[in-house]
Amino acid sequence: MMTPNHPQWVEFMNKLAGPGYCDFQRGPEGPTWMCNGTTFAEAILADMGFAESAISDNLEFFAEHGGFCDCEIVFNVESSFHNAQNGDGCAEDNDDEVEEADS
Ligand SMILES: [Zn+2]
Question: What residues are neighbours of ligand 1 (ion), with CB under 5 Å?
Answer without folding.
Answer: 35, 69, 71
